[in-house]
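Quick one, T. Sequence first:
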Amino acid sequence: MLKFISKLQWLFWVGFLGVFFDNQYLTLFFLFGLCGFANVFSPMRNNIQNLMFLGQNLWMLVGILIAHFRHGFKLPDKNSYKPQVQYSLPFDGEWYIANGGVDKETSHSWFLPSQRYAYDFFIMNNEETTFSGEREQLENYFCFAENVLAPADGVVISAVSHFPNTPIIAEGQVDCTASDVRGNHIIIRHSKHEYSMIAHLLPESICVKKGDSVSRGQVIAKCGNSGNTSEPHIHFQIQYGKSFAISAGLPVLFAHIIVDGKKTPQGFITNGHYVKNDDLISPYI
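Structure tokens:
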């Protein structure tokens, strides 16, 4: 069965026909590449955990179709969706946007609806590196164990904190030790349809639990390297619902932040820039 699932990954190439003919339905075939995970069973996980990891990725594949269907095959974008909440950045100090934006060219993962408007944040020094010393040591990364903040007022829907950190191996490669690609994570409901999800958190660092009310700027965890990640960073996204797999991602409207040293009262952000919070404001527009 697993060999059959693995072979399905070759349907990935049909996605290029979608790009060539500008057909969004054919581009969905790119997600069959996820079936390659059938061959990537980590020795760091037991068989049950490996199957859970594979199952989650296959569910994410199905979730692509569900997300499109739920929105009438017109996913939310910065022009069609009116944000219900203005968000602060989920950290202190200045961080670098390594991945993420609000259009196809800058998107974290355009063909994964839930992560279409996600962001990956790192801390970089003046030499534009994210660590000092041996790269295999997690403690050498500038953002490792830094505080993670609630991006707006809300209620905790889920808090998972038991996965170990993923070890650093060859540059750009990942040997995920968790059965969940997110690793340790928190999901917060901020309004009827807007939920934030913050992933790759430090094991046992989450200091809130399901049902807790949180306030904008409140420390809720620490940055780690759990889940499917090649180095410590914060993965942050807003989604239309609590399900990571089937909820469409939403463009994130940030308020009172500083982008490359310039005050930005309100707006969207994109990769390649340094950002930090300015003043915290009321979460509702």
